[in-house]
Sequence to fold (774 residues):
Amino acid sequence: MRRGVIAAVVLVGVAAAVVGGTARSSAHAGTKADTITVWVGWSARELKAFKSIAAEYDKKHSDVNIKVVGGINDDKITAAIRSGNVPDVVSSFTSANVGSYCKSGAWLDLKPFLSKDKLDVNVFPKTSQYYTQFNGKRCALPFLADVYGFYYNKKMFKAAGLKGPPKTMSQLTAYAKKLTKRGANGSIKVAGFNPFLGFYAGNAPDLSAYAPLFGAKYIDGGGKSQLSKDPAWGRLLRWQKNLVDFYGYKNLQKFNAGAADEFSASHAFEIGKLAMMIDGEWRVAFVQAEHPGLDYGTAPAPVDDAHPNLYGAGYVNGTIIGIPKGVKHKDQAWALLKYLTFNAHPLALFSNAIRNVPTTKQSLNSPEIKPDPRFKTFLNIFSNPNSKTSPITAAGNAYGTLIQAFAVKWQAGHAGDLTKGLQKLDKQIDAQLKQAQAGGVP
Amino acid sequence: MTETAAAAAAPFTLERRRARRRAAWRRRRLVLLLMAPWLIGFSAFFGYPLVMSVYLSFTHYDLLSSPKWIGLANYKYLFRDDPQVGPAVKNTLWLIGIMVPLQVLFAFGVALMLARAKRGVGFFRTIFYLPALAPPVAATMAFVYLLNPATGPVNIILEKLGISGPLWFQSPQWSKPSLTLLSIWGVGTLMIIFLAAILDAPRQLYESAELDGAGPFQRLRWVTLPTISPVILFSVVISVIAALQYFTQAYVAANIAAGQASQAGDQTVNNLGYPEGSTLFYPVLLYEQGFKFFNMGYASALTVLLLAVAFTITVLIIRHSRRWVHYAGAVK
Fold:
C-alpha cells in the first residue's frame, strides 16, 4: 500500500515535470522571436504588396515576427508617440512633417545607426535626402518616392494631328486648345489640359507640382519667402490663369464637379475626358489595373518657355520611414529599416507591385525592376538634378496653405494685382514662419 | 437652583449643537459623495482642459515636444499677422447673422403650422423631424451630391426649367447658403422644442384675446410670442453656440466638393475652406492649426478667444433678452 502511494506520487511528480517542461519549452518558443510592429499608410492592394515584402524579411530572420498595420496617418502616429505606446517602425506619406518629427525627437536621430553600420545617405538622390531630414538632423529615410510627370492620350493626339508631347508651356496651351471639345453652350466635353488648381493631384493648389517646371523658388538665402521677387512665380500664375480663362472659370468648375474621384476607375484621363495631365507615377499602375487598353504615353512635363533646360525635371515627394521615440526593439527595428530603405531587392519588388519610384540610385537601375517605358519616364525624372520637392520648414507645409489661399483666388479673378498680392503673400509666409519658430528651432 | 439648572442645560445645548453640526456635515458629505461622479467628470473633462488650453495658449507646443513658454507671441500672431483669422471670423459671423436667424424662423414657422394642423399631425411631425436623425456626415454628403452643379438632380431639374443653376458648394458665393439649406433641412430638434412650447401656451389666453377681438396675427404677436419667449431665447443661444462650433458639415462638404472624397482623411492635401476659403469657419481654422500643422499652442490661443467670444455673445443675448422674454409667474 505504502509502496503504491510512493509510486503514485513519483508518477504524478514525473508527469508534472514533463508537462511543466513542455509548457516551459513551448513558452520559450513563443518568446524567441520578438514581434516588430510596422505602421504604414498604405491600404488595400498596396498594403497587401507591402505585407509580402515584410513577410519575405520575416522568413529570412528567425529572431523577429513582423506585424504590419496599414491605413496609418500622422494623427495616429502623433497620438501613439504621445501615449508612449509606439510601433517599432513608423512611416508617413506627409514628408512635410519631418520638421516636427526631427526637431522634437519624436522620431529617433538615425545618425548613430548610420555611423555604426557605415552607411552613406548619398545612395539616395539629393531630393530624397532633403525631405527626410530637418536642419541637418536625419530622423527618417526615404522609402519609395512619388514623382510627377506628364500623361497624354495618344489616340487623341493622333486624331488632332499632334506628334509628340509638348515640351514648353506655350506648346501645352496650344495643344490644350486643339484637343478640347466643347458642347453647344460652351461646356467642356473633353478638356485638352485642365489647369484648374485643386483638380486632381497634378494641380495641387499650393502649386507644388508646377514650381519645379518654372524653376520657381520659395525661400531666399536668408530664409525669407521670395514669391514676389522670383519672376518665375508670376510667369507660372499668368500662364495658368490664361488657360483657365480660355476654358472659362465656371465651365471648368462644372467640368470638375462632374469628373469622377481621382482614385476611382472613372478618372477623367482614364475614360477619355481629359487628353493631357500632370500626375504621379502611380497612375501607370492604376491604368494597368483599370483600363489596360488605354493608348497613352508618358513624358516629362512641359516647362517654362524661359527655361527650356528644365525639361526632364519634375516634382518629387515620398514616403518617409523611421523609428519612433520609446521603441521597444530598437536594434531589430533598425535592421528592418536598413533592409527596406538601403537594399535594392525589397525596393525593386515593392516598386514593381505599386509602381512607386524606388529610392536608391542602385535600385533605379536594378535588373529586378520590371521594364516598362511608361514607368521609366518617372525613374528618369527622379534622377534629374533639377527635380525638386517643397521646402521643409518649422511650420511643416503650412506655408502651402497660404499660397493656396492666394492662388485659388487668383485663378477665380478675385486676387487683384498679382505683384502686390505676391508681396502680401511673402509677408504672410514670413510671419507664419516666425510664429512657428517662436519656441526656437534646434 | 436656577444656576444649577442652567449649568446642567449648558452641556446639553452644546451637545445638541455638536450633534446638529455632525448631522449637517454628514449631509454635506452625502451630497458631495452623490455629486462626486459629476465633479470628477467636470474637473477631468472640462476644468482641466480649460486650464490647460489657457496655459498652452502662451506656449509653443507641437504635441510632440514639451511646451515652451513664449508669452503673448501666439496672441500677437492671432490679432496682427494671421491672414486666415479675418476670413474665418467673417465666415463664422455670417453663420450667426444669417444661418441662425433662418434656422430659428424656419423651425418656429414649421412648429406653428404643425400646431394648427388638424389632420395627419403625427405623420407631418415625423416627416419634419426625420432629417434631424440623419448623421451630419451622411446628410452633408447627400447634399453635396444633390447640389452637384454638373450631375446633381437639382441643377438638372433647374436646367430643364430653363434656369442655369448655381455652382452651390463649388462657388464661394453659394457655399455658405448651401450649408444653410442643409442646416434648415435638419432643424427638427428646434422645431420639436417650439412645438412643445406652442402647445403648452395656456388656452385661456387665446380665448380671452379672441373675445377682445384679436385676429390671428395679433394672437401670434401678443399671446404666442410672449408665452414662448423663453424658448426662443434658449433656441437662439444654443444655435449661436452651435454656429460658433460649426465644423463637421464644413469639413465634409469642403473635402467632397473639392473632388477628393477618397482623400478626406489624407493630410497631404488641404481642402479645408474650399472653395476659396469660403467655408473656413473659425473651428475649421482651429482644427487646421492644431491637428494638421501640429501648432497646438497657437490653436489653444484660438480656443481661448473662441471661449471668450462665445461667453460674451451669450451674456449679451441674455442681457438683451430681459426686454423681450417673459417668464410665467415671474415677479418684476
